[in-house]
Amino acid sequence: METLGRVFRPRRDFRGMQRRRNRAARLFKAGTIQAEVARALGVSRQSVSRWYSKYRRGGAKRLKGAGRAGRKPRLNAKQLHRVDVALRRGARAHGFQTSLWTLPRVALVIERITGIKYHPGHVWRILQQLDWSLQRPAKKAKERNEEAVKQWVWKRWPTIKKKPGDSTAGSSSKTKAASRNDPPSVGHGPPRAKRRS
């Protein structure tokens, strides 16, 4: 699955995995050999071998899944909703000078509301859960005079802009090579010895 240029692994289908283990238990009970069970379920022989040893020790009830994989989330659904509502009130409502949300600011608000501290680098995961997206503000100076900018673009820029075919002198620096577009200089390399006559 791809979202905004990032590739995420699909979530595991825990119910489907449990259905496969239950079907394996029925096949074990019917006397099907492990290789056939693996082919029928489309799983590895190692998995079937592991399931069979559990099945022998306690029947189908021993094939129950372990539940969710990984660490449990630190914020529950109610806390996530409270964070979402707080963020929608805006950054200024939480005492910040500007209305811009940054990851450290969001981390601070999460800690204030829930008491759970997150590193700012991990806050984006919570924001993704809340369907928030990255938005960068357009950077324009407050003092910007749009009319003056328009005049500059239409009048001044064409006079200073390089045009094709403009020839300018190469570099006068002894340590910097001349432009490739410049004609080569006459004297290349050490001076040649004169022929004696």
Question: What would you say about this model in short?
Answer:
With 197 residues, the protein is mainly α. It contains seven helices and two strands; from the N terminus they run ββααααααα.
What's the layout of helices and strands?
Blueprint: E1 2-3, E2 6-7, H1 14-29, H2 34-41, H3 45-58, H4 77-88, H5 103-114, H6 123-129, H7 146-160
Antiparallel strand pairs: 1-2
Helix pairs in contact: 1-3, 2-3, 4-5
Structure write-up:
With 197 residues, this protein is mainly α. It has helices at 14-29, 34-41, 45-58, 77-88, 103-114, 123-129, 146-160; strands at 2-3, 6-7. β1 and β2 (6-7) form a beta hairpin. α4 (77-88) crosses α5 (103-114). The longest helix is centred in the first third of the chain and has 16 residues, at 14-29. The mean pLDDT is 81.
Main β-sheet: number of strands, strand sense, barrel status? 2 strands, antiparallel
Strand arrangement within the widest β-sheet reads 1-2
Question: Would you tell me the structural class of the helices and strands?
Answer: mainly alpha
What is the gyration radius calculated from CA atoms? Answer: 35 Å
| Termini gap | 83 Å
- What form results from the Cα inertia axes? flat
SSE sequence, one letter per element: EEHHHHHHH
Low-confidence stretches: none
- What is the count of β-strands? 2
User: What percent strand?
Assistant: under 5%
Number of helices: 7
Helix content: 40-55%
Calculate the mean pLDDT score and round it: 81
Could you state the oligomeric state of the chains shown? Answer: single chain
